[in-house]
Amino acid sequence: MNELVGKRALVTGGSRGIGAAIAVALAEKGAAVAITYAQSGERAAGVIAEIEARGGTAVAIRADSADPAAIERSVKEAAAALGGLDILVNNAGIARYSNIADFTVEDIDALLAVNVRGPVLTAKAAIPHLGEGGRIVTIGSAGADRIVGTPGTVYFMTKSALQSFTRGLAQELGPKDITVNLVQPGSTNTDMNPDAGEFAEFQRGLSPLGRFGQPEDVAAAVAFLASPAARQITGTILNVDGGALA
Ligand code: NDP
């Protein structure tokens, strides 16, 4: 339960859904946590209050992952508030769905900016703060390996990019004893993909377990990869998808 005591973690997009569950899970194991958010100041404050009520340390920073200057500022603020950084979780992401004929340049740019450029720039800003035993965990999607509905093509494409990013960065940072891994959720019950949504039954049918995951299921995988027990795991992809890719 205490394996992250003394560790300092930054979780992007921690105000809701999977990111909020990750922040709480890391704090439960003893880490001091900074979260970023784009809009939901009140919900971010709720996550901080939840962590503090359980005796943890947490801070919320407003920073749009589509904005390079905001990313740099938020990493600096997080490191200053926590006294350094040991763990980065690149979670912030957006989904936009459309058939290719109707996909706008604005949609493509928004997806690439938040889902691809965001994690790259956040890692770039965080790496100078990470020491031996540092951890980078990025949240991709099982949809990178199995397209779930063609309107998701461009969204899933952004998640495929994170696979190469993870493998390359794992090679680059291995000599510094920093691990880099990718967690790919399947259908997970959040605002982005509610388990009572229009396509929920279809998605349940894709998984041998026949159910949506909860944000806590993804958070448990991230907390493990962030822990000292996972020190020999790097450059890998862990699917938390109820077996949808099996
Ligand atoms: P939600 O939409 O429920 O929450 C998204 C979180 O990311 C919020 O905290 C939001 O902040 C933050 N965020 C969004 N855009 C930005 C931005 N530009 N800058 C900073 N923060 C931002 O999504 P999920 O929790 O479902 O998704 C989390 C991750 O998991 C994403 O990367 C998603 O692609 C991935 N994923 C989700 C799956 C699912 O079924 N739910 C399946 C596979 C992958 P704010 O509250 O301020 O808007």
TrEMBL record:
Pfam family, one: adh_short_C2
Domain of life assignment: Bacteria
GO MF term (any one): oxidoreductase activity
Signal peptide start-end: none
Chain ranges passing through the membrane: none
Keyword annotations: Oxidoreductase
Family: Belongs to the short-chain dehydrogenases/reductases (SDR) family.
Name of the protein described by the UniProt record: Oxidoreductase
Species of origin: Croceibacterium mercuriale
